[in-house]
Amino acid sequence: MSARPVKRSLTLRGHRTSVSLEDEFWHALRDIAAEKGKPVNALAAEIDEARGIEAGLASAIRVYVLRHYRTPR
């Protein structure tokens, strides 16, 4: 388990940005994107659009992943 965040680049609506997340969150984000049949960048862009201005993108992704796995399917 990696406790240190890992910085990776994403492209959100044509704009490059970097996000630091723990490996487990990167893996979960990729799994969710695959489950939804969309690229990771597209899912990250949706999360970015839905987040409030008080939340950073990394935090918004962590909360999205947590809610995804808490929601009964």
How are the SSEs ordered, and which strands pair?
Blueprint: E1 6-12, E2 15-21, H1 23-36, H2 40-50, H3 57-70
Antiparallel strand pairs: 1-2
List the main descriptive attributes of the protein structure presented here.
two-stranded antiparallel ribbon, 53% helix, 3 helices, alpha+beta, 73 residues, single chain, 2 strands
3D architecture notes:
This protein has 73 residues and is an alpha+beta fold. The protein has one domain (1-19, 38-73). 53% of the residues lie in helices and 19% in strands. The chain has helices spanning 23-36, 40-50, 57-70, and strands at 6-12, 15-21. A two-stranded antiparallel ribbon has the order 1-2. The longest helix is centred in the middle third of the chain and has 14 residues, at 23-36. The radius of gyration is 12 Å and the shape is globular. The mean pLDDT is 93.
Structural class: alpha+beta
Task: Report the end-to-end length measured between terminal Cα atoms.
Answer: 26 Å
Number of strands: 2
Instruction: State mean pLDDT (0 to 100 scale).
Output: 93
**Computed Rg:** 12 Å
Query: How do the SSEs run, as a string of H and E?
Result: EEHHH
Bin the helical content. 40-55%
With strands numbered from the N-terminus, the spatial order across the biggest sheet is 1-2
Count of DSSP H/I helices: 3
% residues in beta strands: 15-25%
Can you tell me the residue ranges where pLDDT is under 50 for at least 5 consecutive residues?
none
Give a quick account of the main beta sheet: strands, pairing sense, barrel closure: 2 strands, antiparallel
Number of domains: 1
* Shape annotation: globular
